[in-house]
Structures are given as C-alpha cells and as structure tokens.
C-alpha cells in the first residue's frame, strides 16, 4: 500500500512538518518541524534576526512564508545542508512523541508519499513525478527507530 499525506487535518496528517508536535534541538524549542526547518535557512547570515522571529510566529504557515521570502538572505550552503537539517528535525519529532512514533511504525513497509500539489522536491508534486524526499525521509526514520528499538531490546536481554 502507499500512504499519501499532506494536510494536518487529513489522514496521516501527523507526518506533515506542519503538525503541532514541538521539538527541542540544541536547547531551542520549536513549535513544529516547519518552524525549525525554515529558521535554519538564516543561520550565519545578515538576516539572522529572522531566526527568532520565525521561532515565535504562531503558525507553521507563517514560518514557511518568512522562510520562503526570496528578498531575504538565505545561507549560501542551504541546498547542501537542508536534507541534514530536515533529518534532525523529523527524527527528533518521532523520537519525542510516542503516539505518532507508533503511527509511523504501524505503517509497516508501506511507501509514504508527501502528496504536495506544489512541491516537487520534498513531495510528489501535482503529477506524482516529484522526488518525495520527505516521504523517503519518513521511511528512513521508521527504519532508524526500529533498529534503535531492536538494539535497546538486545541490551535488556543481554543483562
Ligand atoms: N505540508 C505543507 C507544506 N510542505 C512543507 O513545506 C516545506 C518545504 O518548504 P521549502 O523548502 O521552503 O519549499 C517542507 O517542510 C514540506 O514538507 N507546504 C505548504 O505550503 N503547506 C503545507 O501544508
């Protein structure tokens, strides 16, 4: 089976980076993965003040709009680091919240697709030809957490 998700209020909406699941990374608390991800576009730039602004806006959509503002200075290495930054955010989200971790694990080996009509990088785009990096990342997080849990169980048995 293939699982499609996009809007928070629709099935599997907890897989969206817009879902209201806070994460804490390096002592900073982010309301959503989207807040965290968008703010990191400005690390080390002359627009660094925007990081705090994005952190404090009340919705992930506001965070996304600020982060996507092309009149602002994005870090020059963004394309090289964005996967790594997203990985940290998404993994932390599913390690922090046991209820949605269970939903992710219960998807078994199903393919997961971010059914975004506009995003051909993180999602599948309108015509399904997109790269679906967020869906792929969620499947990798699922695998990573399974291995992590298996190792923890082995340690318990070894005692
Ligand atoms: N879920 C969701 C979106 N998708 C999210 O947008 C982010 C990509 O942003 P960027 O790299 O700036 O293009 C990434 O987290 C992707 O999952 N976008 C939306 O406008 N609405 C939404 O409900």
TrEMBL record:
NCBIfam families, from UniProt? ribofla_fusion
Coiled coil residues, start to end = none
Q: Name one Pfam family in it.
A: NADAR
Q: Which reaction does it catalyse?
A: 5-amino-6-(5-phospho-D-ribosylamino)uracil + H2O = 5,6-diaminouracil + D-ribose 5-phosphate; 2,5-diamino-6-hydroxy-4-(5-phosphoribosylamino)-pyrimidine + H2O = 2,5,6-triamino-4-hydroxypyrimidine + D-ribose 5-phosphate
What is the name listed in the Swiss-Prot or TrEMBL entry for this protein?
NADAR domain-containing protein
Report domain NADAR positions. 4-146
